[in-house]
Amino acid sequence: MTIAEKPVRQRKVVGLTGDGAAADAMMQINPDQVAAYPITPQTEIVERFAEYVANGEVQTEFVAVESEHSALSACCGGAAAGGRVMTCTSSQGLALMHEVLYIASGNRLPIVMPMVNRTLSAPINIHGDHSDSMGSRDAAWIQLFCADAQEIYDTTIQAVRIAEHPDVSLPVMICFDGFNVSHDMERVEMLDKEEVQEFVGDNKPAINMLDPENPITIGSLVLPPFFFEHKLSMINALEGSLKVIEEVGKEFEKLSGRAQPILETYGMEDAEVAVVALSGIGGTATWTVMKLREQGMKVGVIRPRVYRPFPGAQMAQLLKNVKAVAVVEKATSPGAAASPIFEDLATALYDQNAHPKMVNYVTGLGGRDTSSAQFTAVFERLQGIAKGGPVGPRVSYIGVRE
Amino acid sequence: MAINLKELAKKDIKFTSGHRLCTGCGPAIIAKWTMLAAADYNVAMSSATCCVEISSAVFPYSSWKGVSWYHNAFENAGAVVGGIEATYKALKRKGKIDKDFKFIAMGGDGGTYDIGFQSLSGMAERGHNALYIVYDNNAYMNTGIQRSSATPKYAWTTTTYVGDAYQGKQQRRKDLVSIMAAHDIPYVAQASLGYWRDYMTKVQKALETPGPSFIAVYAPCWRGWRTETNSAVDLGRLAVQSRYWPLFEVVDGKWGMTYEPREAKPLADFLKPQGRFSHLFRPGYEHLMADFQSEVDFKWDQLQRRIASSK
Amino acid sequence: MSDKVYEVKPGTFPTAGEIPLGGIIPSNGNGVLNKTGSWRTQRPIFNDAACTDCLLCWLHCPDDSIILEEGKVVGIDVDHCKGCGICANECNSKPVKAMTMAQGGRYEASETFARHTV
């Protein structure tokens, strides 16, 4: 029976933290190589995977590198050698591998990386905000955002297919909040290892240094007469990957019974006002929307699960009849007109048939919690704006002592 | 195995002409010799950003023939070759690949002694089956002759000028070969452009030794050293004959000379042709020359003691 | 080899859609198509009669510009030799060197050992 023909059935349900879900997905994928360096709050992924290695439950070559820069460098070498390679990191680690991020995407290597969102120093703080992945949003990596352990498990498996797709051939990072999601134990339905193996399939690398009949030169100097075309080729692949993400998602839905939309929404069918939020706070916003709708408020929430490439057209479609939108994000772009997601969304809507009033909220920097009550206050402000009231400041901060 | 020049001449040249390295470039010869020594193997290479890298692969040209070569970044040739080798091991274990491969990382002294130090050390510590070759031309030549930690003391470079306050580099050079020997890897060697047979023998020995190996080969750069276009090989010989750059190897922790000149040439013979040391020959600067000689003596004695205690 | 990795012929200018994946170049040594012979300001003169076929010039040439046939030196690669003089320096033939350097990069018609390879 093929994946498509198998009936969706009762599956093994386990309690896993976000890190644990990532590690177990990696274990079932059984990559050729994992090169990783520990950093809180990613450490549990590496530790759990290392245990699988020691027990022989995976046949992965585990390279205990001496820094994150070397972690991604070793992954680049491994991917160039035609292997299926993975790594994982956080915060300072992502920052340390920054130059190699651009090289991995420029070399079109399909590396998959669970990335636990943790704020960037200084000040040093090990808790979750999105400053780390936002700082790398231009590195031409596909950035997927997960709000719970189940999504992390599902998305990591799909990421292998997305990255290796011949029309994509780009590295993918699977982002999720440090501690709130990485260390909280939740319910996860797991697939069988054989199902995962069948889903990810055999790696058929387009780039392979280990074919003696067809040796290759990677990383040449590309001067002005050729450079621009190289970059455009990569940009086109990144923008075209949205279609692939949706296709892989549909295939995964058939296997698992769980839909994999690129935008999770609630209440958008008739929402007059809406909040856009990634990841964990998107979950809090969704819960708030459920409660407010019970009281008759026409509110909605969009939680993008794909941030790069930015699904602007799809969001514009959802916001067509919305009068006011608040983009609530756990990141800031100091000195810019607003924070990253707001800037992306405002730009995406600029020439579309959707013109809600837009406001931006920065929340939860350094891991401070955002409560449902605070989201309620946001929706109340949005309703005031929708009724024709003053918009107020473009950027506001939630829960900070100003 | 013995290196036979007539046999070598029959091999395919895997580092082709048409590269953009300077006329008379020492590292260019090293790249060619490395490929000749490895001619009978399937080779996968990583390269640091360096003179040889930037000049050998300029899109759409590649001077690498019959060998897979990967330039990623400046400081990670060690990590990248480790990744290639690790994936090779995994694929071999899974039965997806059956060919034998040799793994070589190559970089200049800048990308190895300084910015690439950590990555090289990590590769050695983890025991990857790869050979790291550093061609030492004594500075960041690619970017315009700036000093590295491999630059000799008193050398003129574009970041250690010779003036009234300071005369060239103020620090002694880093002894990376000893540091790599301290990693207790199975094979470490020091070689020179002046001695082709010694170098190629060492490359083949390293490739046949399982585990990490490291060779530092002296590769004079006439441009950066301010001398003549035809002098690279001569200087490679004089460096050895003046005891400045002895030829030795460390096999499983045992130190031994691989070549010893019958009598040591004066250090001045080695330094005089090099414009970067011209100030050492000015009247009133004799103390600099004396200090230089004392460093050479110190390192030579240190080497002989290590060899003696290895017996 | 994947159909996404292929040689871009020097002198052509591919579009973004035509650029090979990741800018990868097949390692086929097409670097030889880049002629560096114009760099010369001096040139090696080969004296066949004095040559002992020791091959040291061939071995030490940084640009693989000593042409061998059947294991013997027969000429200089006009298209690639950069005129460094290392071959002349290494030549051990006595009493007359088989390789000497002459001023000027351009070879005369009479210097028939100088051959084009591209």
Question: Secondary-structure map with pairings?
Answer:
The complex is a heterotrimer of chains A (402), B (311) and C (118).
Chain A: E1 12-16, H1 18-29, E2 33-35, H2 43-54, E3 61-63, H3 68-80, E4 85-86, E5 89-90, H4 91-96, H5 98-106, E6 112-117, H6 131-134, E7 142-146, H7 149-164, E8 172-177, E9 186-190, H8 193-200, E10 216-218, H9 224-256, E11 263-266, E12 273-276, H10 279-294, E13 299-304, E14 306-308, H11 312-318, E15 324-329, H12 340-350, E16 357-362, H13 372-386, E17 395-397
Parallel strand pairs in A: 2-3, 2-4, 5-6, 6-8, 7-8, 12-13, 12-15, 15-16, 16-17
Antiparallel strand pairs in A: 1-9, 7-14, 11-13
Chain B: H1 5-8, H2 26-37, E1 43-47, H3 51-56, E2 57-58, E3 61-62, E4 68-71, H4 77-93, E5 102-108, H5 109-114, H6 117-125, E6 131-136, H7 176-181, E7 187-192, H8 196-208, E8 213-218, H9 222-225, H10 232-241, E9 247-251, E10 254-259, H11 267-271, H12 286-310
Parallel strand pairs in B: 1-4, 1-5, 5-6, 6-8, 7-8
Antiparallel strand pairs in B: 2-3, 7-9, 9-10
Chain C: E1 25-26, E2 42-46, H1 56-60, E3 66-69, E4 72-77, H2 86-90, E5 99-103, E6 114-115
Parallel strand pairs in C: 4-6
Antiparallel strand pairs in C: 2-5, 3-4
Question: What does this 3D model show about the protein?
Answer:
The complex is a heterotrimer of chains A (402), B (311) and C (118). By secondary structure, chain A is an alpha/beta fold. Chain A folds into 2 domains: 12-256, Thiamin diphosphate (ThDP)-binding fold, Pyr/PP domains (Rossmann fold); 263-397, Rossmann fold (3-Layer(aba) Sandwich), CATH 3.40.50. Chain A has helices at 18-29, 43-54, 68-80, 91-96, 98-106, 131-134, 149-164, 193-200, 224-256, 279-294, 312-318, 340-350, 372-386; strands spanning 12-16, 33-35, 61-63, 85-86, 89-90, 112-117, 142-146, 172-177, 186-190, 216-218, 263-266, 273-276, 299-304, 306-308, 324-329, 357-362, 395-397. In chain A, the strands form 4 sheets. In chain A, strands 11-13-12-15-16-17 form a 6-stranded mixed beta sheet, with helices on both faces. In chain A, strands 5-6-8-7-14 form a 5-stranded mixed beta sheet. Chain A has a 3-stranded parallel beta sheet with strand order 3-2-4, with helices on one face. In chain A, α3 runs parallel beside α5. The longest helix of chain A is centred in the middle third of the chain and has 33 residues, at 224-256. With 311 residues, chain B is of the alpha/beta class. Chain B has a single domain (13-310), classed as 3-Layer(aba) Sandwich (Rossmann fold), CATH 3.40.50. Chain C is elongated. In chain C, 8% of the residues lie in helices and 20% in strands. Chain C folds into 2 domains: 1-34, no CATH class; 38-115, Alpha-Beta Plaits (2-Layer Sandwich). Chain C is built from 2 helices and 6 strands, in the order ββαββαββ. Classes of the chains: A alpha/beta (402), B alpha/beta (311), C mainly beta (118). Chains in contact: A-B, A-C, B-C. The A-C interface holds A 106-109, 166, 169, 205-208, 211, 213-218, 220, 222, 225-226, 228-230, 232-233, 236 and C 1-2, 4-5, 13-19, 21-27. β10 of chain A pairs antiparallel with β1 of chain C, so a sheet runs across the interface.
